[in-house]
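User: I'll paste a sequence; please echo it back and then give the predicted structure.

Assistant: Echoing your sequence first, then the prediction.
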Amino acid sequence: MLIFFGVRTPMIGSVLIKQNVSCDYCNVDNNLRVTVYGSYFHVFWIPIISFGRSVEVTCLHCKKTYSEKEIPNNLKPAVDTILRAKTMKSSKWHSFGCLIIGFVFLLTFLLAIYALIYNTFNSKTDFNNENEVQETINLDKEYYQKKPKKVAKWRKELNNLMDYSVIEPSILEDPVAHNIKNCLEPKTTFAEEYSMSYTTKIIEDRILILIEVGDYNQYSEDQKKQLYTNIEYCVKNVLKNEPYKVYVGVYKKNNLFMQQSPKETIKDSTALKSELLKSFFE
């Protein structure tokens, strides 16, 4: 049975605490991970309203998990530092549905006010003019009741991968992403700390590497060129002994600024509308 509404809680980010702190339960140092989740109510998979975020701190040694209210006092300064990063904030698109609903109500209200004023100052107009006004209102209603544009299956899969990228990929769960992060971030010094996240997917002889960058629109042209050069170098260096057909996507909030397939690479405004990565999923 399909469920068309409910609550989803995707992960916003996951980061290892770099400060020298220990777990209160097992007293092991430098093995604590902060994970932030964002909850939202959805209808037909469209986010309606955000319920904010929740925080967990997990010890990788003893697997002890602290909820936000249970975080020991000695860990709170380090956790607060991580939570202040932009990438750990609840995504604005979690309340996207509220904005749409508010826009529709506002538009309906303005149309009603317009119709009231029109009828007040044109009460003596003939029957044909009244029919034209009603026809205009009906056309407006039909326009705003159209169904959202259907998203292609491959694009849904790609968006889902982007949503679950992580800031600190595990060397056990995603070694390729882990190694690319360790290669790329020391070379990309202009990027804000904790502003980049990574994920990879392998299908048969193909590998897709997705890298979410920080404030991309704030980068200068030289910084963008340096970013692409560093990514190309790190991908080749990490996969130099692997026989994969390589696909790369660089994005911010599901907007692709660079797409690369085994045959070509496209960037910036051209990449935003391209379907170059579609061949990876086929």
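The helical segments are 76-83, 96-121, 127-144, 153-163, 175-184, 221-238, 268-273, 278-281. Strands lie at 5-8, 11-16, 32-43, 46-59, 65-67, 197-203, 206-212, 245-252, 255-260, 265-267.
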